[in-house]
Amino acid sequence: MDGIHASLVTPFTATGKVDAESLERLARHVLEQGAAGLVALGTTGEPTMLTPEEQGAVLRVCRKVS
Fold first, then answer.
1. Quick one: pLDDT band at residue 35, thresholds 50, 70, 90?
2. Alpha-carbon radius of gyration of the chain
3. Which CA distances in Å does 13 have to 37, 40, 61, 64, 66?
4. Which terminus of the chain faces fewer neighbouring Cβ atoms within 10 Å, N or C?
């Protein structure tokens, strides 16, 4: 796919959990602003600090949006 693929940061709640609602809003916003795709868990460093379950949650949100 051609175009810009935006690297997403993973938002967290005040208690340190992945904030799926904020991530979904961010992903939708980036795509609505013209990004051709999303890059999750690839460039911002969070993957090394997330559990496999948290990584799965991030990927599910991004798949749902795109």
1. very high
2. 11
3. 25, 18, 15, 20, 23
4. N
Q: In which element (H, E) is residue 64 found?
A: helix 52-65
Q: How far apart are CA 37 and CA 17, in angstroms?
A: 24
Phi, psi of 40 (to 5 degrees): -115, 145
Contact 54, 18 (CB under 8 A): yes
| DSSP state for residue 9 in the 8-state scheme | P
pTM recorded for the entire structure: 0.89
pLDDT tens digit sequence for 42-61: 877 778 889 999 999 999 99
Which residues have a Cβ under 8 Å from the Cβ of 18 and sit 6 or more positions away? Answer: 10, 11, 12, 50, 54, 57, 58
Q: Give the separation between CA 61 and CA 9, rounded to whole angstroms.
A: 13
